[in-house]
Design brief:
By secondary structure, the chain is an alpha/beta fold. It is 48% helix and 13% strand. It has helices at residues 34-47, 66-76, 88-91, 96-108, 128-159, 172-189; strands at residues 19-26, 50-58, 82-85, 112-115. The longest helix is centred in the C-terminal third of the chain and has 32 residues, at 128-159. It is globular.
Length: 191
């Protein structure tokens, strides 16, 4: 066997291959999208799905993600039948409400959602909303734990006399540039 897990998920409209979008996210530049992408591509090929678009974000799960925003817009335009992701925490770690918002937006647009790590996360499955809520809450708690560990590390550095944050004065150049831009725009508008 190929080692590709996950259930077969339906056909596209009219018996055609499912048009699939992949969504992957890593939190830092040091992590690699390929770990998620290659497995999802293999799964899609094993299912006979056609990958029509890949959306990849490299950013924390609580910050604005351009590729996720684009995926949501494409979903409302029905550019694909299903979105597959490595796991629900790749979609968001913002908790139950935000997870349900994304999933409901997708499913109400007719888009099916597949999570490789949680194959029971299928909109047609019994207890779907309960499963989503549990995974979303676990992801939110993990985000809080990461935040607490970060704050504890920053407090330790401060206690030991270290500096936390941007180097002092690093924003001064930005302020001068913004002021110059403002002055130029204002002078141009006065003509």
């Amino acid at each position: 066997g190929s080692g590709v897990a996950g259930p077969a998920i339906g056909e596209g409209s009219g018996g055609d291959a499912v048009k699939l979008a992949l969504y992957t996210r890593v939190s830092t530049e040091d992590q690699h999208q390929e770990n998620q992408v290659l497995v999802l591509r293999d799964w899609a090929a094993a299912q006979g799905h056609e990958v029509v678009r890949e959306y990849q974000d490299t950013i924390s799960g609580v910050k604005r993600r351009e590729q996720l925003d684009e995926l949501m817009r494409a979903a409302t335009r029905r550019e694909f039948d299903m979105v597959a992701m490595w796991s629900l925490d790749r979609l968001t770690r913002e908790g139950t409400f935000q997870s349900l918002y994304y999933l409901n937006t997708l499913t109400s647009s007719g888009i099916r959602v597949f999570s490789y790590q949680q194959p029971m996360l299928n909109p047609g499955a019994p207890f779907y909303d309960v499963v989503v809520a549990v995974y979303a809450e676990v992801a939110r708690l993990e985000r809080l734990q990461i935040s607490e560990r970060t704050k504890a590390g920053m407090a330790r550095v401060k206690r030991n006399g270290g500096h936390v944050g941007r180097p002092k004065g690093s924003r001064d150049g930005h302020k001068r540039l913004r002021r110059r831009q403002y002055d130029l725009v204002r002078a141009g508008g006065a003509r």
